[in-house]
Amino acid sequence: MRWAIGLVAALLLAPLLIVDMPPLVDYPNHLARLFLMARGAEDPVLAPMFVVRWGVIPNLAVDVIGPPLLWLLPVHVGGRVLLGMVLLLNFAGVLAMQLALFGRVSPWALASALVLPAGAFLLGFLNFVAGLGGALLLAALWIARGRVVLTALGMAALFFCHLMAVVFALVLIGGHQAALAWGQRSLRPLLVLVPLALPPALLYAAAPLGAVAGRTEYLPLGAKLAQLLAPFTAYDLRLDLLTALAIAGFLLAAAWRGRLDMPAGIGWALGALAVLFAISPYAFKGTQSLDTRFAFMAMLLLFAGLRPAMGRPAITGFALLLLARMAVLAVAWWGWQGDIADFRALIADVPPGTKVFVATSPRGDGPIGRVLSNGIRTDTHLPALLLIERRAFWPLLFDEPSQQPVLLTQAFQALADQNGGAIDAATIRPGQLRGYDWVVTLGGAGIATLTPVVGR
């Protein structure tokens, strides 16, 4: 089994060798922030643009780990090392839960590689994904050891990784304790959740989250049900659907034949995740895909918490499916190299310290690698390379005080407010370009243009 685990881990990491800027939707934006934290303070061009302000922020996993990596390594090497660490953390979490629940790792745990380099990872939700892996590891520690103080400290650490990681850990540990309570016909096993939830609760009270604004949005039923496919999302819709059907069909068949081992605590946890998915909004206080995140959690738990019997045909079938998915991903990332090269050539003459406005024009789907199977474009944050490689100001940096420790200085924040997000190039008002030197426009079929601002 050890050689199989090593082989799957190597397979997960292999695509990171293909391209220096993998096409994860939010990743370039995260990398720009980490680059500023690692090297910006000593750069006379970048230093006036931002300040670092630490606080009680439940979204800091990569902000703690990333800057030291980027200080020690070239930016694109350090970034990919960070991505590899996030992937392996999730894989390790699945394996640890299997070991804690069943005493050994089953081949089914290795099949989690079908969904690890997909869904939330390809969207670039790095803190969230890292938090899920941490939650699995902490829950496995609780199941194996049951140490209250150590687990409570772990819950505090999870809070700083991502708030949803705390929810996932409480669901996992709560499911385990609920099964004990049911078996003992006593509520006493559930009381341990109080000291475990107390540290993140106190941190939440100290965090600047109460004042965060943002609309609450619920999806129509059909659109909400479509979010159940999100954990499988990669680059080929047919292959994503086949993967979802293969996993669901195999688990249902194993359960029908009585060859599915599911501890009672996992049943409670899966039920809780289903309820949370059903009642949660899609958007809340500036957070998008809130309900979808419970689908990501449930999918990981299907691999971490279940142990179906797997014969050689099933193992062979899932191995071939994994190879097919990784091949499609590799082709997509290989093709992405051309987009990266074209964009770098476009911005090659942008001088350091200049200010670049970002706009969009009507955009086609483009080839594989430029769009995920759910229609989300992967090049949205590609202009972050202006800051990373040209040391130019780019106004769409993730700098929400309740989520990131990097803030723009007052003058540059005013410029960012003029841009205000992804703006259709046809609707730009003259006043919005005041203070900018260039406009970069992300166009259809991956074509970007760079034009100087006239009459500034």
Model description:
The model has no long low-confidence stretch (mean pLDDT 90). The chain has 18 helices and eight strands. α14 packs antiparallel against α15 (290-305). With 456 residues, it is mostly helical. It has two domains: 2-329, no CATH class; 335-452, no CATH class. It starts with a helix and ends with a strand. The chain is 56% helix and 6% strand.
In short:
The chain has 456 residues and is mainly α. Helices cover 56% and strands 6% of the residues.
Based on the model shown, name its key terms.
single chain; 456 residues; mainly alpha; 2 domains; 4-stranded mixed beta sheet; two-stranded antiparallel sheet; 8 strands; 6% strand; globular
Secondary structure layout plus pairing:
Blueprint: H1 2-13, H2 27-39, E1 50-52, H3 61-72, H4 75-102, H5 107-110, H6 119-123, H7 126-145, H8 148-161, H9 163-184, H10 188-191, H11 193-206, H12 221-226, H13 237-256, E2 260-261, H14 264-279, H15 290-305, E3 307-308, H16 312-346, E4 356-360, H17 385-390, E5 406-408, H18 410-419, E6 423-424, E7 438-442, E8 448-452
Parallel strand pairs: 4-6, 4-7
Antiparallel strand pairs: 1-5, 2-3, 7-8
Helix pairs in contact: 2-3, 3-4, 4-7, 4-15, 7-8, 7-9, 8-9, 8-11, 9-11, 9-14, 13-16, 14-15
Distance between the termini: 65 Å
DSSP helix fraction = 55-70%
Number of strands: 8
Uncertain stretches: none
Averaged pLDDT, please?
Answer: 90
| Total DSSP helices | 18
Largest sheet: 4 strands, mixed
Task: Report strand %.
Answer: 5-15%
Structural class: mainly alpha
Shape: globular
For the CA atoms, what is the radius of gyration?
Answer: 23 Å
Order of strands, main sheet, comes to: 6-4-7-8
Tally of structural domains: 2
Succession of helices and strands: HHEHHHHHHHHHHHEHHEHEHEHEEE
